[in-house]
Amino acid sequence: MIILFYSGLILLFLIIIYSVLLIRGCNQLKSLKEYSSDIDKDFPSVSVIIPALNEEDTIRPALESVLNLEYPNLEIIVINDRSTDRTGKILDSMVIEYPKLKVYHKADLPSGWLGKNHALQFGAEKSKGDYLLFTDADVIMEKKSLIRAMNCIKTGVLDHLAVIFDPVPQGALLNSVILQVMSALMLIIRPWKADSDDGNGFVGVGAYNLVKKSVYMEIGMHEKIAMYPADDLMLGKMIKRNGFKQVGLISGGNISVKWYGTVSEIIKGTEKNIFSVVNFNVLLFLLLISVSFIVNIMPLWIVIFFPITFTYPFLMVIILRILLVAYLARPGVLNSWNALLVPVSDYILLYMIINSTIKTIKNKGITWRGTFYSIKELRSNCKMKLYD
Question: 388: burial class by Cβ within 10 Å (0-12, 13-18, 19+)?
Answer without folding.
Answer: exposed
